[in-house]
Design a protein that fits this description.
This protein is an alpha/beta fold. It contains 16 helices and 17 strands. Helix 6 packs antiparallel against helix 8 (116-129). The model is unreliable at 1-7 (pLDDT under 50).
Length: 450
């Protein structure tokens, strides 16, 4: 029941302090030592390791699980960090249900995979809690590399370059490092400021200088970076969003879901976050799921996700869809937004048109319906801001709205590499971005040594 005197509307302080604390506690509590040993013993340690093949960073999963089973959690953490220095975050946010755990032999045989993600977290958490550092910088090379973006790809690249003895300057537009790990992940997935703890753990290797409030195309230019550094790695992610372009979408209360999640992540008091009673989220990806679940956890009474295709076409995994419905979120399919109906400048409902698959293409049926809403979150995709790369005499080649790179993550401009969500093959996954940064760093190092 609302603790605010307003009967309707977008308000704060809807729940008790204990309810906020419970709702935003760790969605997957960590395994204790005994639980980790029991779970590790379930692994068959397959010689062909389909789980390892399914991991974008190619972590030796059977090896790190075997190390846990023998009580060597720190050795396990090193096996993970050798391939994925952001293994702690990936253990929390990686869609293991569609990657390593989906192909686990235990999943195939009995429908219950080894809990690889939780085991990975168990090992990496111990290393970070004890501040155990496994890597040292090589002898300084005198080379200086600019990295644009302190998200997963940028941090991964910076750490690997520092290992090789290069000096790295990271430029990031935000006030904090971490990228989407800090600003775009559901609060209940990364509790207790983990994103910043991980940044500190990564940069403790030394040789990495992060400069905040520096946006490419505004505060720095690609030309300047290229001329003042021995190499440049672009990892700025996707800084812009696709906007809802329907009648009435300018109403106060029609908000970008990315901004909602970011503001929620940075709030030091969840009771101060305004939330409506009837929420509609438009979209079918992880951002839509995260926004919808958190709206419900903040005290919204009715939360509905509307997606224009069926469940199988949603970018969010089935696990995440099930998590949303378990929290009381309703997911409706075959609906595309038509117009926002407002009262006194604020939304009161949103009209949708039914869609269908017609000859392999999405088509509107002409039939409409409306859903009551006092707050609408738009999560219909992100994109690379054109202004990020406008300034400068040269322009990198684009492909499908993102930066084109070759197999070594080299762009069309000599001396400039790119990786993560901003490139044409970006998968919008933290683990994939980490792999890009790591591999681009090795390519940069080979080039500088040649």
């Amino acid at each position: 029941m609302s603790r605010n005197k307003l009967v309707d509307g977008v308000v704060s302080n809807r729940l008790s302090p204990d309810e906020y604390l419970e709702n935003f506690s760790d969605v997957h509590p960590p395994l204790d030592n005994h639980e980790a040993l029991v779970e590790a013993d379930r692994c068959y340690f397959c010689h062909d390791a389909p789980c390892m093949t399914a991991c974008p960073t190619s972590i030796d999963i059977p090896m790190f699980i075997r190390q846990i089973s023998t009580g060597n959690s720190l050795g396990s953490a090193k096996t993970i960090f050798d391939q994925n220095i952001l293994g702690g975050m990936c253990a929390r946010v990686c869609p293991t249900e569609t990657l390593c755990e989906e192909v686990c032999v235990r999943e195939t045989a009995e429908g219950k995979p080894v809990k690889i993600g939780l085991l990975q977290r168990h090992a990496t958490d111990e290393a970070m809690a004890t501040q155990t550092q496994f890597y040292e910088r090589a002898k300084p090379t005198g080379k200086k590399i600019a990295v644009v973006g302190a998200g997963p790809a940028g941090l991964s690249c910076a750490h690997r370059l520092s290992m090789h003895g290069h000096d790295v300057v990271v430029f990031d537009a935000a006030e904090k490092s971490g990228g989407l790990n800090e600003y775009g992940i559901a609060t209940y997935k990364t509790v207790d400021g983990f994103a910043q703890s991980e940044v500190e753990y990564i940069t403790d290797i030394g040789g990495i200088n992060i400069k905040h409030g520096m946006r490419l195309g505004k505060d720095i230019t690609l030309d300047d970076l290229n001329s003042q550094h021995d190499a440049v790695f672009l990892a700025m992610g996707l800084s812009d969003v696709n906007h809802l372009s329907v009648q009435g979408s300018e109403a106060d209360g029609v908000e970008d879901a990315v901004d909602f999640i970011s503001n929620l992540r940075q709030s030091d008091d969840l009771s101060k976050v305004n939330i409506g009673r009837k929420i509609v989220v438009i979209g079918g990806g992880m951002t839509a799921i995260d926004a919808a679940i958190q709206a419900k956890l903040l005290g919204a009474e009715d939360v509905t996700i509307c997606y224009r295709r069926d469940a199988e076409n949603m970018n969010a995994s089935q696990y995440e869809q099930d998590l949303a419905t378990s929290k009381g979120v309703v997911i409706r399919h075959w609906l595309q937004p038509g117009s926002v109906v407002s009262a006194d400048g604020k939304p009161s409902s949103i009209e949708f048109e039914y869609t269908e698959n017609k000859n392999g293409k999405l088509a509107a049926t002409g039939e409409t319906m409306a859903i009551s809403a006092d707050q609408i979150f738009v999560a219909i995709g992100q994109k690379l801001s054109a202004s990020d790369l406008e300034a400068g005499s040269n322009s990198v080649k684009f492909e499908n709205g993102r930066i084109a790179v070759d197999e070594e993550f080299k762009t069309s401009i000599a001396g400039i590499w790119a990786g993560g969500d901003c490139i044409a093959d970006g998968e919008d996954l933290t683990v994939s971005a980490v792999a890009h940064g790591r591999d681009a760093a090795e390519s940069i190092n080979r080039t500088l040594q040649s």
